[in-house]
Amino acid sequence: MTTLEFNYAISKTSKSLKPFAFRLTKDLEDANDLLQDTLVKAFMNRDKYTDGTNLKAWLYTIMKNTFITNYQRLLRKNTFIDTTDNLHFINSTDSSVENNAYSTFALEDINNAVETLDESYKQPFMMHFSGFKYHEIAQKLKVPIGTVKNRIHIARKELKEKLQVYAY
């Protein structure tokens, strides 16, 4: 394959590479950069391409490997390595103070929400929360297992609505 034929084949194939680059990077500018890096590598390594093989697959492989290499390089770049002699201060818990205010408020809200449930929903829900299986709850409450599942489902749904402020 001559250089002219190779350039023509790559320019024809490069249009299908852009969506793949976008799927990898999830950003248009990064996708364009990845496409450009891929094409530069393809032109520089033209001698490694074997005539008669799938050019598109070769380009996709170059793009995928370039993306992985760039991603690994980015991870290494963002990794913080402390080279000071005082490494014991990094993980020291002596100077840290734990504040349980948020979890205390959340726990109070959860308990209040559970207490406001109708007794027919609260009892099976709390039993299930305590580790009882559906069939055990059904036997203890003398109701069908389907009723137990339904009541637990309704209790979860009501709690989800009441505690929506904690949804992420």
Distance between the termini: 56 Å
Note the main sheet: none
Average pLDDT works out at 84
Helix content: 55-70%
* Cα gyration radius (Å): 30 Å
How many beta-strand elements?
0
Order of helices and strands: HHHHHHH
CATH architecture of the largest domain: Orthogonal Bundle
CATH topology of the largest domain: Rna Polymerase Sigma Factor, Chain: A
> Which CATH C-level class of the largest domain is it?
Mainly Alpha
Structure description:
The protein has 168 residues and is mainly alpha-helical. It folds into two domains: 75 residues, RNA polymerase sigma factor, region 2, helix turn helix motif (Rna Polymerase Sigma Factor, Chain: A, Orthogonal Bundle); 65 residues, Arc Repressor Mutant, subunit A (Orthogonal Bundle). It contains seven helices and no strands. The protein is elongated and about 85 Å long. Belongs to the sigma-70 factor family. ECF subfamily. Pfam families: Sigma70_r2, Sigma70_r4_2.
